User: What shape does this take?
Amino acid sequence: MTGKETTPQSEIIGGRTISKLEAWLGTDTYRMLKGLVTNPISVIGLLLLAMFVFIAAAAPILAPVAPGADPYHIPRDGYGSVPKPPGADWTHRQPPMPFWWKAVTGHDQWIHLMGTASGQWDIYYGVIWGTRTALFVGLSITLVGAVVGIAIGAISAYYGGWVDMVLMRITDVFMAFPFMLAAMTLSAVLTPVLGKGIFPPIVALMAFGWMGFARLLRSDILSIREREYVLAAKVIGVRDSRIMFKHILPNAIFPSLVLGSMRIGSYVITFASLSFLGIGAEVGFADWGQLLSFARAWMTQLTEYWYIVIYPGTILVLFVLSWNLVGDALRDVLDPRMQGSR
Amino acid sequence: MSKKTLWSLIGLLTLASMVLGACATPTPEKVVETVVVTKEVPGGTVEVVVTATPEPEKPVEFKSADPKTLYSVTTGDTDTLDPAWNYESAGDAVIQNIYEQLVTYNGTDATSFVPALAEKWEISDDGMTYVFHIRKGVKFHNGDEMTPEDVAYTFQRGLLQGGTWSPQWLFTEPFFGTGIYDVAELVDPEGNLDDSREDLQKADPDKLMAACEQVTNAIVADNDAGTVTFHLSQPWGPFLATLAQSWGSIIDKKWSIEHGTWDGDCATWQNFYGVSSENAPLRDVTNGTGPYMLDHWTPGEETVLVANPNYWRVEQNVPVFEGGPTGPQIDRVVIKLVKEWGTRFAMLKAGDADFTYVPREDVSQVDPMVGELCDWNADKMDFDCGATDSPDAPLRLFKGMPSVVRTDAFFVFNINTEGGNPYIGSGQLDGNGIPADFFNDIHVRKAFNYCFDWDSFIKDALNGEGVQNVGFLIPGMLGYDPNGPHYSYDPDKCASELEQAWDGKVAENGFRMQIGYNTGNTTRQTVAQILQADLSDIDSKYQIEIIGLPWPSFLAAIRAKRMPIFISGWQEDIHDPHNWAQPFLVGTYASRQAMPKEMLDEFKAGVSAGVAASDPAERAKIYKELTQKDYDYAPAIRLAVATGRHYEQRWITGWYYNPIYGADSRYFTLGKK
Amino acid sequence: MVNYIIRRLLMVPLLLFGVTVLIFLMLQFLSPVERSALYVRDIPKNERVLEGVIRKYGLDKPMYVQYWNWLVGIKDQSTGKIEGGILRGDFGYSRTASQPVVDMIKHRFPATIELALLAVVPVLFGGVFLGVLGAVNHNKFIDHFVRIFAIVGWSFPDFVFGLLLLMIFYATLGWFPPGRVSDWANQVIQSGQFHSYTHMITLDALLNLRFDIFWDALRHLILPVITLAYLWWALTLRVTRSSMLETLRQDYITTARSKGLAEKVVIMRHALPNGLMPVVTLAGGTIVGLLSGVVIVETVYNYPGVGSAAANAAVSLDVITVLAFVLLNGFILVMMNLLVDILYAYIDPRVRLD
Assistant: This one.
């Protein structure tokens, strides 16, 4: 392991030198972060993630839209069904040309950088602004799912008895639903209420996305509760709530973190599948699944129209891949059984 | 560490290349051989450039693997096989092959008729009595012989079974007068009993009896004379056309009663009234006289027909029309239901589909597979066929034929706001919604008409294969004038109309509304998108949002008049102007639009006069006047009529086009190599 | 043990009750008019009839009344017959499948089971193989490669992958057609000579000694199975890999190695049996997961199972059908979990059921 060199600022604990950073972050967090940045798999994942965050942040520069226009509404060049290849010129309602375009390429004419999908939606705009949608969809659903799930799992494990029994049976009921179908039904039912858009499927996925967290956290808490340091804290009379928040939760939460990072990717996929089935975002909304569903009818001729699948498909796969790589590596790092195996 | 990263990267790249590699297939290189040869001629040698002589024209043979079975791959499933109830094209395609009618269309002509189950007929001078001489020696699939009684029962039972969702209104109007859409209205003209068996059973028995007798008196069988007589309430030009469709299919009385339809007694008919599509007694059983018999129907999967071995046309040697076939040439017809276009396309490519439904937005994918192109020639009412640039390609394409379907955008005059209505936003002219009577202002309706870019619609949504429609009739129809009054795309006029609308409040505050379409219907979606884009080009405060809804929600919203604009299509039942005037100006659509009474009354007068007039010139004049009124009132945006396309494998023979049947409903005229 | 099983079985109705209540809660988002579209195919034109439908099915009544009606059925005033009522085995009429829901499930469920059972084999074996491969070569190239390979499968939208396979192996090569069987085979199956014992065509064909039909049915199953397998490998791989890694670090493995046993023997004989314990749990979950995971795969390959019917129903809001599918799924899930628990207790003596 590294850390043999001691810096003047470092102090010595338990015969092992420890850096200021480690002291500030806490040993577990430090070990986790270090594991992440030293594992090649997670490094790729993190780099990819950084790229997505950059694209999302820089979207107005990368793909500017006309002032007053809704940026999440993909600009389109007419209504025809036959896709146009990358490099085709804009002919109708062209959005403003990004300032860097001329500087980089020397051309005066703004083009369809990645071609257009069936219906003449510009793929490039969809991919760029869709990154924001993907991050929003993935993060918000996972966050809500995790918070709700963790709360239910914690309450269930903490109180035990009939509370545990009732909450876990409710969890069972939600888990008995086939996930895809539950999401489809709920978002179809919600559409007349919330209006067409990304919110019905998001709410639907939230409603059916918390059970994994609840179960996981509950079983983790139950196993941690029996560990010596918790028992010791009980013996010396620390309050229950303090034990819960100070000792049990922080230790039990890491597996949920792994689950969460993996889930983010899957939600984006499920969201795309819903778009494929015609549920989900409004037509023309910047969403990768939507772009792929535009390609649905043209997937039969990929030799000619490869760009309508390859661009949105690749970015979708990379997005899911990045979260999974990070999650996978995180688990390897966190799994106490794995320690020392590297 | 760097080594590991490298390896992982290589792994990623390998995968990416696998994915990409799967998509790329080598393009065959075209080799053109040009050889220079020296040729000896008397008096010296000359160099001659010889281009490789094409092989002697060897016509490519198109042979299917299974010439005895026809595979039709469709997207719409049959709803019911009861001919009196079915009112959509998927069921038609099956019923038309199992059942037959008294008269049938004369080949490709949608307006002239030849005898079928009737040998001949006479029409009285006043045009109100039709006498049909029923053919003898025709047997149903179960062996029963067809009699005039069967014929009379067919129509009586259809009328008495009723149903405002069924095609029966096409018969109630000629038999009982315009404006009567259901037999229950003979008991209660207000229509309060329509579709409700429960309420009808509570009605006055004398009135019920009288209504039934009105039906049995209108349709009278004479077994000895071998005739059936129809007494109409008024002259009805399109009556033969109405008889020739699937709802005129003759059923077997004895067999039908055994299966639970009306027992023939006027005292009990109310107990058989008001079925729904799923519990109609003849929903999944059939017994016709036609060329094919039902083998099985597995809802959601397939329908299989087998040839009728005792078909009367073969036995009596009566071709279906002059020069037409007499009996089925293919033993077995498999109609498969495949909703996914990619899958259908793959089946067409593999030769497992003899024909299939190709959505208009996907035609450019199929066109490279076309080796023979047949263009519609309007003068000779037939196709001109020729080879394409790739004469060995496996498909034949028929195109350019006039179609009898149109999609329009309808304004709703009085939008239902009960319990809140998200489609009209705030419900006020505050820039964030529209009032419920927004479209009552003629300037708004005109503005929307000026703000629709027909050229984009025809070029992009219809692939350029269509013409803008003038008025509510379709091109080629009696009374249709291609140079008649119509709107065209004009942003300036649109802007100025909007400025005049609602005393300038519209232009001042703008508006916001939602237009719905049923998910999966690309044409409707595009119509909404064009309107959205063209209006926002005038000013960004004219906002239209587009929402796709599942079919039931969409339908419910239209029915409840909750959507400010709805986009819907109509396919004609019979090729007659009345079949357009009725639903568009007074019937189905007019009522869904909640048209104001004075407008409706004006239309009603014209429509009734139009169908009753017997002189074509007079009718044409009436329909022209109606078209002018339709233009003045602008109750809808009349869009465009597209021309049709039909793809088939080149081993198929005998396909012909009659617009009334749509693409593929008469399998027994087809052959297969 | 028997006690435990009985107690678990008693939970089944409770769970199914919960599932139905949840679905009814979802339906409350719809207006009565929209809800009437769930019961009748055509919304009547006549306002009064519409009211009649709403009245008849009690759609304007409180939720518990509607729920009760749905459970025990409604007495038709005019005929005196009871309609509906799932407790009477009447699940209603599926609008999208154009037949009673029970008939639809009877007809289509064997197809889905056949697909799921066939897919379980490659999912588990492929995943276990990859997992062991990864664990044995921990952190070497093969490990990374195998993991990324599986994660890419997990990340691939199944509809894209499915359509790609269809284009290559059917439209271009003509090997594996969509659907369930060819028409000629279907004719044989529907004729009198072929006995449908299980309605799973591959099995029935073997029992009838019709190897041509067996092959034909298998040809139709290969692409859906591959699609499902590639999608699910990531999961099996993950579980196998971490379980194997843990097992490989156990003392007895070290002992076995130090005894000089060949690495292959150590892994196959000693590590694998223990390392595969969690896979048993996973197997049950996989079958359940596959049953609901077939929704999109069946749609793409036009495979006539309950999944494609359910997808169709959900898209057009045919809740009656969705409801039945969810109930069926919940039932299978509970039974499968029970089976796994019992199996687990049987193979691992340390686990006690109480």
